[in-house]
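Hello,

Our lab assistant flagged a job as stuck in the queue for most of the afternoon. It eventually completed. Since we weren't sure the result was trustworthy after the delay, we are filing this so someone can double-check. Below is the sequence as submitted and the structure that was eventually returned. Let us know if re-running is recommended.
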Amino acid sequence: MPDYHDDLRLAHVLADAADATTMDRFKALDLKVETKPDMTPVSEADKAAEELIRGHLHRARPRDAILGEEYGIEGTGPRRWVIDPIDGTKNYVRGVPVWATLISLMEAGENGFQPVVGVVSAPALSRRWWAAKGAGAFSGRSLTSATRLHVSKVDTIADSSFAFSSLTGWEEQGRLDGFMDLTRACWRTRGYGDFWPYMMVAEGSVDICAEPELSLWDMAANAIIVQEAGGRFTDLDGGDGPGGSNGAASNGLLHDELLGYLNQRY
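-- returned structure --
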């Protein structure tokens, strides 16, 4: 199996640089915020963080492609870095500390591009999570000061904790009734939002989570971390990995039942 240690170290360097940029503008009274064509916000910090990461990658990995939320795709080849400079921009612009920079390296294979390295850095929470294919998932302050992550062993929906971002999107897809049935069947539900539910699944503090509308940069880093912690990440139709337009993550034991609820149609 390939060794991704150097790529993981680089991803941490990229995250360190992004953290310095995003934290410098977090809660700034003169922060500039625009509305994109899809009606979602983008701040000057989103753009600055992605530009910074791209600049580092151009120097360190000039042959690799880069896909980012703010500036799209550049380059071709079997290796692709996928970047979400600020996952949780709406939180960021309102001063809520639940946001993170998501950095993933994906490689082409038989089943298309799949993540092999992922870093999720949430500096306002003083938290960071990471994983590399075949090497496990971890959380901590650095590569040398970390705790290995493991998903939970909860094996019944009635005992499970379910996390999600919001109700938006479920109704448009005809999945709202199944979603609501799931919330009633679970022991506990919470709307933590964005990257955090996936990290909680990896840590074992949450058992299942799902979102109806996502892009690749929202999922790639989260997916490899959940998978390396022993969990499962698919789209809502059960396709493994972050290749769909939505996502579901679990400890693996509850995954089929999770998808069963979310695919109920009335």
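-- support follow-up --
The delay was a queue issue, not a problem with the job. The result is valid. The longest helix spans residues 5-25. The helical segments are 5-25, 44-60, 89-94, 176-185, 196-203, 216-228, 255-262.
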